[in-house]
Specification:
homodimer, alpha+beta, Uridine Diphospho-n-acetylenolpyruvylglucosamine Reductase, domain 3, Alpha-Beta Plaits, 15 helices, 18 strands, about 35% helix
């Protein structure tokens, strides 16, 4: 199908579906939906704000007839450009589909619309002693639709896994507008696992079933201070080899730590090269047993000291430190290039050495933190997109970081997805036949190539003479 | 592509690839590969026994050129007919690809060929204190290739999940013979989850990466005796609502129990309507805490008595009882129709009542046992395929059992897959759009429709004028 420009008749059709309030056509409004948390942006041709699955279905029916690409978006907090409405496409915002459709505390289950904010769901189900484990740092704004599209995780992923492990069903709209339901309770191919994390390229979500988990009765939260990130990474590898898995095991290097302490107006920790932020949760006995094992292991390693939270207020104080990393780093430089590499835990010390050597060699400021317990580090290169020469070094540095990651048996996308940011590296990770299969799968679900085209897999030249994305 | 008959030149090509010993052409040999654990059978046109991925690749290259359907098989213990070589197709047996290619105890990981028997892997990795959690009752004979193809589980699935949760990578051969590698460590679409459990219809396995788990240091194994299966199911629903999850929680109704006791020459338990077989594992403290919770819950319910294993020998005695269910039931009647229904745990009492009413109404002998902790019951209708009238009642009874299961929000295939046995019921579970997507996915991976055609999704009339399967 030849891709067409957005026609006045298509806009009228959308207005008929949703009323005037559901359709933004002014440039000012459209610009608000042009970006995400990357450096990419592209102004959509129109912004649609449906309020029901039926409206989404009708939107897709019109879009597929007109050959208009549709780009779903939640809060636009993604780090891979998955929600960027390339080439003036239709931005489909779920801000008005934000209802909790069902909550069954006894079954530990809820059904939500895609626009529900993660943090609001947590508050709602928290009243019944339950929580939804995935906790991306963006949880106060990011939506569950976006969380499902990216299979978001967060600090608690070490113990609880990612969004994929909690989705029990999806209601979707196919590329041609047909409504569709996929459940973990039905036989045949596991399309549910395929759809979670597919970045809106295989179907548009309209409802999400989620498994919930009881809030553990007990906790122990502490910081361990090390002379260097490498020594902290040795500690993580050691814990892993002993099979000691806390709920949360996060790292910050010293520049990140100092930056966050400054941001929060706290006293800087002097002489510290890195910290590990650790939380153990469970029954009182479980927490006691695991804490003892952790302390024993740490005491044998070269850490500087321990700081354990003894009250809920102190626990919150430590969590605030961890959660403030992203806003604190945002102030450091005009542009933050956030890479998301992940290696086997035993390879963490080698990865940390490689990162430090790269910063040195390319003369770049790198702030490293992240879900070290998962082997997943966020490597933030601080720069300024306007400095062309420096950006070339940044690109070279990122390429070398990825080479090192692959060499260590890792992936260049621990949790942030592919979108457009990592698209060019994907063939290296999945191989030629893998890319062919990705293309076939994309075609299987979206023959007209209108569902978030160009994300994850490249658009084919055959589609959209208006320009491959 | 038009499906052709097996030609002498194809047989010669296969012999060139594998030598005479790799190719069985005699009827006697072929009959040995014609069946599985269902009542279906179909004699393959030829049996191929490759010994390397490269040979599998060359076999597929020949088969796709000739339009010959290829049906992979492990030990033929499946309950869905997935390994039945329909229409004289090529039976691809992995009995010679049975090597453990890599075992890294420190990484708790191994890589195996598909023909490795589950139980032999357990023995091998057990020497290093590790195990592979999926434990189908067939584990002493069934192969890991078959386990992956069906995403097999077993009694331990309650705590540990199914095969899907342990596969880290797959080496595959695509329908056209191309070699291909899929890993959980690479970005993009989650094809790994899609391929596990796809019953050999999307690609042919040649190597499997598996995550292993440390053997827990402590255990507590016991039987709880109840007046009826319904009362046992109430106990399970109660445990579940309290969030008490043992490692193993299995049920047997009284006819199954008596049958197994007889089979093992043990004293029959009198006045018992059903038993729950329970095992708790973990650290000493974990086992103690969980056992206390279990005992407290059971003591409030209407169970008759408890029998706890105090030695490894007694534990083995209880496990032998559980593992002997299948061989014991095999002696009851000429034909055992084994249904595999699964409902939310809170709906178990209703399911049990429905099963009992069905047995009564249709005048059939039904033996019920299974992974009740997962909500998964194996409903065995004892009959004789030669009795035509009775078989009609059996079919009617199965249909009504499935209706009841769907009504309770469950699935008719808890762990045994679709194959050909459940194919006709699949549209009811996944819907019209779901079936269309299954068809599209099948085509995406296997356009020529030669990979185990007709299993999971029906073959299309367009393929194989020689007859749709």
């Amino acid at each position: 199908m030849r891709r067409k420009e957005l026609s006045p008749s298509a806009v009228r059709a959308f207005q008929e579906i949703m009323g005037q309030a559901g359709v933004f056509t002014s440039l000012e409004d459209r610009i608000c939906y042009s970006f995400d948390a990357t450096t990419y942006s592209s102004v959509p041709g129109v912004v649609l704000r449906p309020s029901s699955a039926e409206q989404v279905s009708r939107i897709l029916a019109v879009s597929s007839q007109e050959g208009l690409p549709v780009v779903p978006r939640g809060a636009g907090t993604g780090f891979a450009g998955s929600a960027i409405p390339l080439e003036g496409s239709v931005a489909l915002s779920f801000e008005r589909m934000n209802r909790i459709l069902d909550f069954s505390p006894d079954d530990r289950h809820c059904v939500v619309e895609p626009g529900v904010v993660n943090g609001l769901l947590q508050k709602h189900v928290g009243k019944k002693g339950l929580f939804f484990p995935p906790d991306p740092s963006s949880l106060d704004v990011s939506t569950l639709g976006g969380n499902v599209a990216q299979s978001a995780s967060g600090p608690r992923a070490l113990r609880y896994g990612s969004t994929k492990d909690y989705v029990t069903s999806l209601d979707l709209v196919a590329g041609d507008g047909q409504l569709w339901h996929v459940s973990e309770k039905s036989g045949g191919y596991d399309l549910l696992s395929l759809l979670v994390g597919s970045e809106g390229t295989l179907g548009i979500l309209t409802a999400i079933g989620l498994r919930l988990v009881p809030v553990p009765s007990s906790w122990n939260t502490f910081m361990a201070y090390f002379r260097s990130l490498e020594q902290a990474s040795v500690a993580v590898a050691e814990l892993s080899s002993q099979g000691i898995i806390p709920t949360v095991l996060e790292a910050m290097d010293h520049v990140t730590l100092r930056c966050v302490e400054e941001f929060l107006g706290r006293q800087p920790s002097s002489g510290v090269g890195a910290v590990l932020f650790v939380e153990v949760t469970g029954s009182e006995t479980e927490v006691k047993v695991l804490s003892e094992k952790l302390e024993l292991t740490f005491s044998k390693l070269e850490q500087i000291r321990f700081e354990s939270a003894v009250s809920e207020a102190e626990r919150e104080r430590l969590w605030t430190l961890r959660r403030s990393v992203s806003p604190a780093l945002a102030r450091v430089a005009p542009t933050k290039i956030n890479e998301d590499v992940c290696v086997p835990r035993s390879k963490l010390p080698a990865l940390v050495r490689a990162i430090e050597a790269l910063a040195e060699r390319h003369g770049l400021d790198i702030y490293t933190f992240g879900h070290i317990g998962d082997g997943n580090l966020h490597v933030n290169i601080m720069t300024d997109v306007r400095k062309k020469k420096e950006m070339e070094r940044v690109e070279q540095c990122a390429d070398e970081l990825f080479e090192a990651t692959w060499l260590l048996g890792g992936t260049i996308t621990g949790e942030h997805g592919i979108g457009i940011a990592k698209r060019k590296y994907l063939p290296r990770e999945v191989g030629r036949v893998g890319m062919r299969m990705f293309g076939e799968v994309k075609r299987a679900f979206d023959e007209a190539n209108i569902l978030n085209p160009g994300k994850v897999v490249p658009s084919e030249p055959a589609h959209g003479a208006g320009g491959a994305v």
